[in-house]
Amino acid sequence: MKKYLKYFKYLAAGLFLAYGRYPVSWILSRGKTQQKPKVLIARKTGYLSAPSGNRLLVQVDGNENGTPIILVHGLNSSSQQWFYQRLMLQKQYKLILIDLPGHGKSGKPVDLSISTLAQDLRLVLETLRLSNFILYGHSLGAMIILEYLKRWQSTEIKAVILQHGSFTNPLKSCLLPNFMRKVEYPIFRPLLESVIRYPTVFKWLARINYRNGLSMAFYRFLLFTGRQSPSQLRYLSSIAAKCPIDVLAAGVLQALNFDAEEILPEIETPLLAIGAVNDRIINADALRIISTTVKNGKFEEIAGGHQSMIEFPISLNRILKRYLDSLG
What we know:
Blueprint lengths: L1 H18 L1 H8 L15 E6 L5 E8 L5 E5 L10 H7 L4 E6 L14 H14 L5 E6 L1 H12 L5 E7 L13 H21 L1 H14 L1 H10 L6 H12 L3 H12 L14 E6 L7 H10 L3 E6 L5 H4 L1 H15 L1
Parallel strand pairs: 3-4, 3-5, 5-6, 6-7, 7-8
Antiparallel strand pairs: 1-2, 2-4
């Protein structure tokens, strides 16, 4: 009997290592199941090679004759994070979805600096010959758009939507900002540099932790408030698992060097800044500052955390619809 019990323990441990993400997602989620998010197939898909060396996946979806909305996702994610927003926007708007370098189905990044990513964004806009368009960025995507505005403010931009993104070093507006600023140089930056230097070790750890659910527990605390459904938590975790951890580390380092504070008073383009009540990465006050500093800004606050677009899609879509309708 003891022999069989021993084998059972080994079997249980093996199953948990391979499939622990399922019970973990059930335990950590108390939200009711909405429409389960899934991968959406765009009408047109292609790759764009930039002078920077970056190779981007660009997708075109929605209403071909509608106002173009360019959606730029954040770090450790992909264009698939916009599932619920695409369902709401696709009938009226032409949607341009970009996978940032090293994310989703885009190629391995050559240069992840925010200035270069802004240049890559400009190339997408020029290649598709877009005008009277709306830029919508989440997290790092919002920073890229601010960098774009710093370089190329244009009457061709109809409006800008920035969600859960900062105008400066995100450690200044994250959870425990004073502590994080103190450990930034002695601990945090060296850790990120170690991940970049020894990617193989960290990639294996990330792969194991995705399967056993440890990374899911981390995402639940960092990105959600617990009102997400198990399928939503697994969906976001599966997207994040496709982003190499060294790419994530390199992207975070670039974000730490970002600063667009000086350009804010010069931005004349209509701008909606969306903050989340319980965002542990970018405090809603950062978005409030953006909205009050630009010349034509508006601020909206939403329940949830950094991934409110997945956890509270109905509330977010109402905010988006109200603002987009006001643009005419």
